[in-house]
Protein 1
Amino acid sequence: MSKSIVKEIQDCRVSSVLNNDRKQYGKKYLFDGKDETCWNSDGGSPQWIEFSFPEPKSVEQLLIQFQGGFAAKSCVLQTISDSKEQTTSFQFFPKDSNTSQTFAVSNLLPCNKFKLTFESSFDFYGRIIIYNVDIIGS
């Protein structure tokens, strides 16, 4: 049965945090479900989020709420394997919007480690601001 699996995330890493201010813009705010907190990357492309689970998961949907003007233009969600196994990826293209956007994920094999890469941004400096991320899967 599909459900939110963000509470099962074991570890999370991000490419950068604006001005290294983890207290105000850190990765902990990606999955807290609060509209008044956010992860804010520093400038430059690409930016990324890596997250892992204690056991392999199937990701079926990805819900992301960007800040308009700081949304990603092009994104790739990929599986990461520690062995030589084949990795799989899913590319999607968000809108430059403040509203929560839902992306139906396809072609990903079950895995315990994923990387979400923001290849480009609507922001001139390449910054990404995300208020909420939810992952639906099993």
Protein 2
Amino acid sequence: MERVKRLMGPIIRTSFLIMIIGGVLYPAAITVIAQVIIPDRANGSLIYNGENEVIGSELIGQNFTSAKFFHGRVSSIKYDASGSGSNNYAPSNQEMIERLKESAAAWEKDNPNTPLNKVPLDLVTNSGSGLDPHISPDAAYAQVSRVSEMTGINQQNLIELISKNTQGKELGIFGEERVNVLKLNLDLVELL
């Protein structure tokens, strides 16, 4: 019993020291370093309009429903960033099949000039988080006909706009080429 009493002081002091270092000092140091080195990213990669109002983040997808804009991926959580995630359904799951049918029907209704068999899968399926702000370049090109028809902008100009907004693979080897839908639509608004 005497030995336990003797060890309690060092155990408690060590525990508080670890809590202070791991719970206060380390997070504070990382926050300061991030604010100095990469302040834009540390603050959420926010995008502002001309009046300095936040209109979105490069990291969180938005739901564009107007036919004159490029559309992003389907979101099973309705782009609600308070909680992300998606049901991990197997391809044979009936709810997954129904959701895919609904997405395909919505695509056909909004894009009558593009056959469904030419639609990239990322336009009718959702990402794991439900918040993905990117689509593949093919998904953006598949929407050119509709956007051109609705805005009156020449298809070649839209193709150039997509090309300008296509981001390459990370470090040239990781991931896939992608297009940030919010940035693409902001550039589109400038052409209107």
